[in-house]
Amino acid sequence: MNSIRYKAATVRWWSYSEARCDHARMCRVRILLLGLCVLVAITLTLAVSLSKHQTVDYDFPPKPPDLFKDKLNHQPGKPTVAQVKRLVSQVNRERLWYSHLRPILTERQPGSRGSQAVRKHIFSKLDSLSAGWSVEVDSFISETPHGPVSFSNVLAVLDPMAPRRLLLACHYDSKFIPSDPSDPQKVFVGASDSAVPCAMMLELVTALDPHLKKHKQLVSRVTLQLVFFDGGEAFEQWSQTDSLYGSRHLADSMSRIPHPPGSEQSTLLNAVDLLVLLDLIGAPDPMFVNHFENTARWFDRLIAAEKRLHNLGLLSSHPKEQTYFMKDINMGPVEDDHIPFLQRGVPVLHIIATPFPSFLHTLDDTADKVHSHTVENLTKVLVVFLAEYLRL
Ligand SMILES: [Zn+2]
Fold it and tell me: Would you say the C-alpha torsion 95, 98, 104, 105 has a positive or negative sign?
């Protein structure tokens, strides 16, 4: 019995002992389980938190840092005196006048034969250059007070794959202005508005052709794009719907085209460093003022280039070192082809003569009113500006 009791006792002891042991094990298991739960909870919290951050990043993608930082931090090159002399010596006034300007001095309203002829002229000039421009026509039809009209912007890019672009632009269409009833041969050719700016752009890329070719080969982060806008002028009365047909269309389409191709974060419009718009150039003694504070440092480069060229004796009919570009004079807002870009946040340098030429929108805006030395001088200033900006 004892033994049995003992046994029983032993059994009980063992049972007790086992129970205690089980209890201890249970405790350890519970602690382990609890620890595991805490670990899982922490892991889940972290995962949720991280996924939340990823969602936030996805919903509000950060701007591509390179593109925007590069634009903001872009510094112009500093060409030496010898380089400046060499660069501006390439500007050829005769070529500008006869080869580039003369074929544009014709009626060239949107959709007309004159417009088509001017586009052909621009194509052939760009095609003759060695830099290798990618030229395309951005055509579309828009309703106008004269019914539906076909418009064609001409776009030329040096390196379409470059991350950023400097846009140099003018409008090539001429305004609808009735010819002189007493002299039907006298038609509106808009020499200063804007045949001369178009010819200057062609002369600029011709004078800089070897430098632009080298620039393209070096695969730079910023390239040059030329834009010849169609439909800058109103058909009748200037209004939001009757004006700026080509620039409104282009700014809108550039804001929809991903750049670099396939990008979900940036568009061709984001790729624009600066839009340099030329207009109403050709009359003697023009004045150009800065219109926008955010591009004042680039306007300063124009002032500096004019002074430098004057002091080097490289300008003609240029009485004092600061003749054309004047800072901090308010001439009021000017509506022009930059507006659709400005409204979308593109920095703008608007090079337009203010006050406007006296013959604006009259049949007298002809080649004989254009001061060839002024046009040549301004082209030289722009050669220096482009060479500095693109670090040619
Ligand atoms: Zn005009």
Answer: positive
CA of 356 from ligand 1 middle (Å) equals 10
Distance 311 CA to ligand 1 centre (A): 34
Average pLDDT of the chain is 88
How far apart (Å, rounded) are the C-alpha atoms in residues 301 and 124?
31
Least confident of 55-64, 76-85, 212-221, 381-390: 55-64
Classify the phi-psi angles of 318: left when phi > 0, otherwise alpha if psi is within -120 to 50, otherwise beta: beta
What separation in Å is there between the alpha carbon of 304 and the centre of ligand 1? 29
Residue 245: other Cβ atoms inside 10 A:
27
Domain coordinates of the chain in residue numbers?
A: 70-390
Q: Separation of 92 CA from ligand 1 center, angstroms?
A: 26
Q: Cα–Cα distances in Å, from 116 out to 127, 155, 270? A: 16, 14, 30
Just give the CATH number of 70-390: 3.40.630.10
- Rounded CA gap, 224 and 160, in Å? 9
CA 190 distance to own-chain centroid: 26
Provide the percentage of residues in the chain whose pLDDT is more than 70.
83
Which helix or strand (DSSP H or E) is residue 225 part of?
strand 222-229
CA of 280 to the centre of ligand 1 (A): 8
End-to-end CA distance of the chain: 113
